[in-house]
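Today's session is about reading a structure prediction critically. Students often jump straight to the picture, but the first step is always the sequence itself: look for stretches that repeat, for charged clusters, for runs of hydrophobic residues. Only then move on to the predicted structure, which in these notes is written as discrete structure tokens rather than atom positions. Here is the chain we will use throughout the hour.
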Amino acid sequence: KESLKNQKAKKMIGLVTSLLVQVVALLVQIGYPVLGTYDYLKKGEYNRQWLTYWSLYFVAYTIESFLAMITGCGGCMTYTILKTLICLWLVHPTYLGASWIHAVVIEKVFHTVNAAVEPHIGHRLGHHEVEKKE
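Below is the predicted structure for this chain, in token form.
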């Protein structure tokens, strides 16, 4: 049998590791993106990378919350690490994964949806003409 001292040490290492993973996850998923977004907002500029990141993050968060409510599961460390690595890819300046998803996935989906919907509603989704007052 393990000694009580070894059990306590393993438990402490597990808690510290879990805390470290959560801190890194918050910095990667929220901290860095907030700073990047703030820089562009401060300049008054639009940035597709950050807009797409926050949209994807919100969708993932909504799905996570819904699944956690159904399963009663609060999450596990493996999932947190995986999500953090995905978020890191989405925001890392070398990869700009959010911009890639926007260009490769979102643009194609919206192009297809607009092509199907436009004939029925008379305009592209998200492109409303403003009435001109004379």
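Discussion point for the tutorial: The CA atoms of residues 26 and 53 lie 15 Å apart.
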